[in-house]
Amino acid sequence: MSEVSHDDIFNSRYGPRAARGGIKSQTARGKFGKNWWAQRWLRVLESLDLGGRLARGRVYARRGQVLSIDIKAGAIEARVQGSRFQPYDLKIEVTTIPLEKWILLSETAFNQAIVAAKLLAGEMPQDIEKLFAEHQLSLFPKSMDDLKTECSCPDYSNPCKHIASVYYLLGEEFDRDPFLIFLMRGLSKEQLIDLITKTGEPIKISRVKTRPGSVSKKSSSKLGASSAKSGKSQSSTVSKVAEKPTPLPLEDFWTVQPCSHLVGSISAPAVNASLPNRLGNFPFWRSNYPFIPTLEQIYKTASESAIADLANEKFNAGDRS
To answer: Interhelix angle for 217-230 vs 232-242, to 10°?
Structure first.
């Protein structure tokens, strides 16, 4: 007979404490995850025989009880609001694949044109598990031997419902960005792309933090050299670029200004919010309203309003003439 924790008793009577600004599942009912790789990740969770903790984990994920998730190479850290005042801290450690194995994969599996093209397009090839298996490797954890989970909650069971809720949300996030599965196994997106395109050892990505508008010493010295060669005309061009733009009056920001100087026909875009659609869903979305559909409606309304205002402006300009 399994032991019952404080949380199980409290949840059966009152449920978990309400969490503000938590990460909410994008599926109100039914399955988590749309693509096969997300479903494959969730099958690992479902194979652990968690019983009722699995169902409670789904409830936590849909209610927004998960406050934060941080995915790193070989580890996922999260905070989940349970029945107690203080949120629980949890960690999921995943066995990483050694670098030399990744290089071997790049010389065989990732070197195939179809596999490389799909990965570079942000898709997971259907037969990628078979390609990993040919090297006695697995992209997804096979069992609890590949996973180590811990949570600060008083639940005697491990994995607990808090860990289960994070599993479900990870499935949805893998849907959005399959590269996170590789990161979980120890390889970043930049390293994976470098392996695919160069079939060599992944480069170390170094990022230099600069303030907006700042120029590094190296680039500024090149700019100075080219300016000296081109003379006065070049320096005048640089000075024009350096000039600050005229600030817009804040009180007029939301006000439609006269647009009589515009020429040509104006029509609504064929696709609303095309750029946000290209960028994809926001990571770990925290609202009840879906991100992309909400933006599409906002863009549609803004386009219709702008077209109406411009049509009215042209009509008034015609009257004046």
So the answer is: 140
